[in-house]
Amino acid sequence: MLVAFFSLRILNTPPTNQKEISFIPFGDSFTIGLGVGELDRWPNIMIENLRKEDTHVDIISTPAVSGHMVSDVITYQLPVLETQKPDFITIFIGTNDSFAQVDLASFKDEYRKLLDEAQKHLRNPKSIVLVTVPDYSVFPGVIGFQESGLSKHILAYNTIIADESIERGLVLADIYPISKTMTDGEYFIADGFHPTRLGYEVFEGVIRAKVTELLDSR
After folding, report:
1. DSSP 3-state assignment of 23?
2. 65-102 per-position pLDDT tens digit
3. Of 21, 90, 178, 188, which residue is 20 to 30 A from 209 by alpha carbon distance?
4. Residue 10 above 60 pLDDT?
5. CA triplet 153, 157, 163: central angle to 5 degrees?
6. Contact (Cβ atoms closer than 8 angstroms) between residue 72 and residue 7
7. Distance (Å, rounded) from C-alpha 142 to C-alpha 146?
8. 193: DSSP letter
């Protein structure tokens, strides 16, 4: 009787033919989640929410490193694509470049090199979601230390990112507008700059919508 019960349960269980979609997030501290646990990073929150929507995504590598700039991603992170072949990637980089005030021409040149190299190694060169730099000028840890016009300075870097997305036909997750709402301390760890899980949930909502758009177009 017990054997028959288990057999019935197996027969009544719907088949799972959902293919795991492989994913690699590239970036800096905003991707590696400085100051929070692994499950509270936005990429991990995203795959958790996608699974609830019956989209099975698996992070196969997390090469992001705190403090990295565009040139560092090219040198230290992208080589993972020589051995790992994900179905899609995200590139969330530029915050440290803008904070260091890398001139716009140099940033554009490095960002283009980054995308050229990434696209060269992907099976589908358009399987990339680009993420803009948040407006960290409104974050509590920056208030009082910011220079005049910092928000417009960040927007200039984002214009380069957006232009590359248009030129290459890549999906863009623009978190800049919604990041302007993140002025309360509850969104950040003690430094007032790096997000808590709540802050990453704000980023994740925008990014997940664009990842879904990319996956639906495959």
Report:
1. strand
2. 999 999 999 999 999 999 999 999 999 999 999 999 99
3. 188
4. no
5. 140
6. no
7. 6
8. S
